[in-house]
Specification:
By secondary structure, this protein is mainly β. Helices cover about 5% and strands about 45% of the residues.
Length: about 325
């Protein structure tokens, strides 16, 4: 990839970046280094030459001021961009720009929009939705928009700005819902944008339900009473498993969020492995000697819906 890029204005260096090192804690800052809207809409990685206001200065070099080039009316600026690899091989792009009109840098927000800025706490409250963004959540200023969709529905959708704007840290979103008491503890919050869906367990106080996210999008409260499903992989109850080296089970849930998976072989806990996928695997070890065995699997989703399955097999 690119090691260094510098922007020159009339032969004077203005701003650029140099990728010497990036710590693990800074990897999410990549969302501020790229054009996140373009990337999240299916485009490639376009890199910013200048630092967004809410991004730390780890890779950016502010050579002259804050990196902003002022365009006076009818004035021409000769710009040059130099891009280097780690060995110093350099590519150069030259072009001229000018402003033919006076620009209004501070247009008034339109009705329904709220100004949010990086470096400060931003708060939004309505009769149905409430949240605040801590100081480090935004990389750039935005005109925040909110809309309630399907407002006549029992579970309306709350459009909280757009997922094309990156959020650096988590924020807690609260949604007001009229949920019957028997299922108040079965409420999950769905966030979706395009084909991506996230489900979170909620906490509730009175009629407000809260969950934490770090992306904007569309949010909805849903009642989840559906238990997880356990499906054996190339295994069935009562089979002779002497030719198998392991047992595998797919576990699925309508919210894709599991709280607990427990396995007991002949009344003793055994270890299944799972690498953030849907398949849980037990590799036969000294806990499963030759003979007849009973395996009990118990799975619980994020709101406590539980499934238990019992299998018998012989080794």
């Amino acid at each position: 990839g690119i090691y260094e890029a510098i922007l020159f204005d009339n032969e004077q260096p203005v701003v650029g970046f140099q990728v010497d090192n990036i710590s693990y804690d800074e990897t999410r800052d990549m969302n501020a280094h790229i054009d996140h809207k373009f990337r999240s809409s299916g485009g490639s990685y376009l890199q910013h030459l200048s630092r967004l206001p809410g991004y730390n200065e780890s890779i950016y070099k502010m050579i002259k001021g804050d990196g902003v080039i002022s365009l006076e009316k009818d004035s021409v600026h000769q710009l040059r961009i130099e891009v280097k690899d780690p060995n110093g091989n350099t590519a150069v792009l030259r072009f001229n720009i000018r402003s033919a009109v006076e620009l209004n840098d501070d247009p008034s927000p339109v009705p329904g929009e709220h100004e949010f800025h990086p470096g400060v706490i931003n708060i939004f409250e309505s009769d149905a939705v409430s949240f605040y963004l801590p100081e480090n959540c935004l990389y750039d200023s935005i005109r925040f928009r909110y809309a309630e969709l399907n407002s006549n529905s029992a579970n309306p959708v709350h459009q909280v700005h757009t997922a094309t704007v990156p959020i650096h840290g988590y924020f807690t979103l609260k949604i007001k819902g009229n949920i019957p008491p028997p299922v108040k503890d079965k409420v999950v919050m769905l966030r979706y944008s395009g084909s991506k869906k996230d489900f979170k367990e909620t906490s509730h106080s009175n009629d407000w339900y809260a969950a934490s996210f770090r992306e904007f999008g569309n949010f909805q409260l849903l009642i989840d009473t559906v238990a997880p499903v356990i499906t054996p992989v190339r295994f069935k109850d009562g089979m002779h498993a002497s030719k198998l080296s392991r047992l595998a089970f797919n576990v699925s849930d309508n919210t894709k969020e599991l709280r607990n998976f427990t396995a007991a072989l002949d009344g003793k806990w055994i270890r299944f492995s799972n690498d953030k996928g849907r398949t849980f695997v037990y590799v036969f070890d000294e806990m499963c000697p030759p003979g007849e065995h009973e395996l009990i699997l118990s799975v619980e989703d994020c709101v406590g819906n539980r499934t238990e399955k019992k299998y018998h097999f012989t080794r």
